[in-house]
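Hi,

I'm pasting everything inline rather than attaching a file, because the server keeps stripping attachments. The sequence lines come first, and each chain or strand is labelled.
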Amino acid sequence: MQKLNVISSILSGCTILEPDKWPQGSGEIILTFDDGPSEKTSNQLLDVLYKHRVPAVFCYIGKNIIDYPEIANRALEDGHSIAIHTYSHSLQSLTSSRTLDEETDSFIKIIKSLPCSSNTDLKLFRPPLGLKTPSIRRLVNSRGFDYAYLTFFVNDAYSKPKDAARIIHKIKCKIKEHDGAAIVFHELRYIDGRDRYEIDKSWLPGAVDELIKWAKSEGFVFTTYKNPSKAG
Ligand SMILES: [Zn+2]
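And the predicted assembly:
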């Protein structure tokens, strides 16, 4: 256990893992979705969130918004938050300050072109792979961004339909253990140098539907990072 705590504290320093930070211990849950928008899952996912009146944070990749601007706009129209997850999700976007700066400007420009752009202040940032590299830290500090941090990480990125039940079970256990959490799912898996890596994510909307029903029945409340009195 002690070893686990040490590993966890090391990881919390150089990644966006923040196991001890709000909303852990609060009975609240922040749902986040990485690497979209995706033509295959986003609309069904938005339908599920709308049905339950649950807010979420979409950590979009800029070049995917170019492909599906109507999905990103719908997310804003439905009241969700958008976090910057870089334009390209490339290795270079993690290591080069110049690339990061250019990509951030491109991302903001794309969002500003959407009809519902005024619904977001674009202050949330999620680095690819969750890594706080020196370039990422410089960008976040200089632009006054906040990290879209996570309480724990259950790797759903490569999960296929047959893995859905196992992933959801793990997430439920972790949410109970932490009594609230900021959690991540992946709408797609994006890999540097390749186009969208085709993982069958058709299970995601149904799994999120089940998770929300369970969480509400357990008394958990869904929220976002926009909670200045508690987020700290
Ligand atoms: Zn990502």
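The first strand starts at residue 28 and ends at 34.

If the labels don't parse on your end, tell me and I'll reformat.
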